[in-house]
Structure formats: C-alpha cells, structure tokens
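Troubleshooting entry. The earlier prediction with S-adenosylmethionine gave an output that would not parse, so I re-checked the input for stray whitespace and re-submitted. Clean input:
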Amino acid sequence: MITADTCTLLKKLAEKIQQQLGLSFNEGRIAELEKAMQRVAEKLGMADAQSCVNKLLASNWQKEEIDALVHELTIGETYFFRDKKLWDVLEQRLLPALLGQAENERRGLNLWSAACCTGEEPYSLAMLLKRMSARHKFSKPNILATDLNQRFLDHAAQAIYSNWSFRTTSTAFQREFFQPMNAKHRLSSEIRSMVEFRHYNLASSSEHPCPTRKQKFDLIICRNVFVYFSQEKASAAILNLSRMLHENGVLIISPHDMWCCPSQQLESEVICDVYVLRLRKTKLELCGATSRVETVTKRCAGSNQEKEIPDAGGQINKGEPKRQDAKSEPRVLPKKNSYVDTAQSQQEKFQGRTPSVAELKILLEALCNAGTTAEALQWNDKAIEMHPLDESLYYTKANILHELGQHEQAIKHLLQAVFLNQNFVMAHFSLYHVHRVTGNTAQAQIFLRNVRGLLEKSNKDEILPEGDGMTVGQLLQAIN
Ligand SMILES: C[S@@+](CC[C@H](N)C(=O)[O-])C[C@H]1O[C@@H](n2cnc3c(N)ncnc32)[C@H](O)[C@@H]1O
C-alpha cells in the first residue's frame, strides 16, 4: 500500500523521468514505478526505495543513475531480424532504392538504428547489406547504432549472443556470420566493424548523434521504444529524427507509434504491411511493382487532407441502440433480415461512375445487415481500391473480419486505419478490443492508452467519427 506522501514523491519523480528520459508513468503506473525503484535502489547500493527516490529528486542525474533507471524502467527485448516482414521489405524494396540514390550521389549509405539495445538490430542491417553486396555493387555503408543504456551498448560492442537472440533467425545466417563461443555465438569481426555504437538519449537530445560528421541519414530505424514515451515526448523525438533524414530518407517506427508522428514533412506509406515514413521532396522509385491498395501514401497529421464525410445514412449501425458497455464491445456490425433491397438499389445507382465513400458505406451497411458478409467484404475491397486513403473503409473491413473471427486480419486493417489517421479514436479502441479478446494484454493496454490520450485532448461533447453517435465524454467515462 503506497502512502499519500510516497505517492506524491513518486509522481514528482515520474515527471522528472518523463522530462529527462521520455518514459511515461501516469497515475495507473505509479505502483509499477514504486516496485522498479526498489530494484533501482539495490542497483545503486542504496538502503531502500524511499531514500533512492529522495536522492533522485534532489540531484542532477549522473550516467550511472540514468543507466539504473533505464535498465529497470524499459524492456531490453530484442533479437536478430525481429519482424521478418520488415527485413524482407528492406532487402527487396527499400535498401535497393536507397542504395541507388546514394550511388547516384557518389556516397555510401548512412543508416542509424536508434534505440538499438544490445545490437541485434544494427547487426541485422549489417549482415543484410553484406549479403546484398554479393548481388549489387555499392560503396561501404555507414551504420550508426545508439541507445540510452550504456550496458546494452557494451554488450553490443562485445557481440556475443545466446541462442535467444536467434529465435527467428535462419541457421544459414548464424553459420555464415557467427563463430561458436562457450555455448554462445560471437559475430564475425567483419560485421562488427561495420557498426559504430554511441550513447544517445532520444528524449533530450536534439543534436546530431555524431556531432563531428553530421551526415544525414538515408534510413533510421527506431522501433519498440516510443511505447514507453509520453505522446508529447514521442512526437518531439520523431520530429527530431525526421530532421536528420536525407531527402527521400526513410524512417521506420513501430505501427503503434504512428499516431505520434507530428511532422508535416513526412509522408507515410504501407509497403507489404510495413509502415514507413519518408521525408519526401522528390519521388523515389521503389523497386518492384506496388498495387494501389498495397502501398498507400498520405501526409502525416493528415488534417490538411479534404475528407468525404458520410451522411447519417452512411453510418454503419445507424439506428442501433447505443452500446451500454462500450469498453467490452467497441463495434460489431449487426445482421438484420431485409436490407437486400437497399443493397440492390444502391448498386444500381453506381452504374457507370465511381461511387462516393458515403454511398459505398450505405451499401456496406446494407450488405452486412442482410447477412451477406462475403459480398460485403468484396465490396469493401472494391471501395478501398476506389478510395485507398479513406481510413473508415479499412475500419469497416476490420469490423467485418473481427466479426468473422479473423482477428489477425482485423488488426492489420485497423493498423492501416490508424496509419492513415493517427487520431482515429474508434480504430485505436477497436485495436484495444481485438488485442484484449485475443489475450494480448500488453498490446491492448498500449491502444487503451492511445484512446485515453486522444479523448483527453478532445472536446467532451464531440461526436466520435464511426462511434455510432457516441461522444468523447461517453467513451472516456466507459473506459475509466
Ligand atoms: C525494446 S528495446 C528495442 C530494441 C530494438 N529497437 C528492437 O526493436 O528490437 C527498447 C530500447 O530503447 C532504449 N531506450 C529507452 N529510452 C530511450 C531513450 N530515451 N533514448 C534512447 N534509447 C532509449 C532502451 O534502452 C532499449 O534498449
């Protein structure tokens, strides 16, 4: 049981942590912070958590204290080639295009793995490029890797890994680039020499990570870190990273961080399910063909894009009773008996022209309510093809898929909806719900936090888009 005094001190410490390290400990996580402080006290050789909190509140933090905090407050979880799709997209699409651009400019590629943890991410890049060098000719790339935690960086520089770091890596990579070493594996000196490690705090540095060279980056990978940040700090850090990108340079962050993306200069793209941000001034040809739906591009913070607002009849679930327990049931399409006529007359209206989003949504609603889900899905796909930048169409498809029990596909479409509009509350809320029903509590919590953050910034009487008439205040009440 935390006393009121301790709670006040912990909240002050949480503020200081957020300020200096970016890490967010809101009201709901104060008990977690208290537990972590017991471990921090042990690490720093202090008598107890209370004296540790007092000392941290009173002093300017030294590196040892920052490391102890970072070690206890973040998860140093990483492994080689984490998220296979990303590495496929890098190998087949992004790196060849970026290498081509760098070669045209007669320079080597500049890459940065920000928040690299124990080095698996930047070394994966180095191994991939080494493999690619057998097929393409290019100048030696520069790979920079940074992290806040000096212990992780020391581990990275040693480059000795246990089997756990190879949990999804093909044995071919392991055989090619590692030598066995006392039940572990040591990375070859050639790959080690391709990566330079440096200390860098994403939350407080706006400086370039290499002040002497200051080269811009073709690719920055910064994944699985902003989940610990407050939205404000994450947005500031992403903006800072975007300033260090080359023209056409690419920034890769985790999909659930997309909604923090603040920069008007960045454009977002989905390439084979991988979310990338690009500093776009001129058009860079990607390698390989892309279909209209597969690759969608939109200016981030897309409020400057004109939107087609469906009329009331275009709202799926119109006329349904309002949800009582919004927290447990974000959105389910109803099946009713006789919407076939509406569906037919709606399709007749489309003859010879491209229907609007609003018209398509009336049709989708009718098809769902008539119970013809397969047809609804087909029309939803056509609708997305006609209007690939309309987030609500990905949302309606996700809801149909969710109802069919295709949770993974539903998540994919909800992420695309959020990607197109980071402020799409109901999509975040559905992501919370789908993750919760599939037992992925950690992810569910991330999206619930997103929902709360967005709602707290909005006017309580505002009606939520796609929310069946629910207001911001009503949803806030439900989730609280
Ligand atoms: C979960 S790991 C992610 C590692 C890797 N990017 C990946 O996706 O596999 C998170 C890393 O973020 C680092 N980190 C946390 N706060 C940071 C900050 N303010 N600046 C730089 N790195 C930070 C942690 O030390 C940790 O190594």
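This one parsed fine. The longest strand covers residues 245-253.
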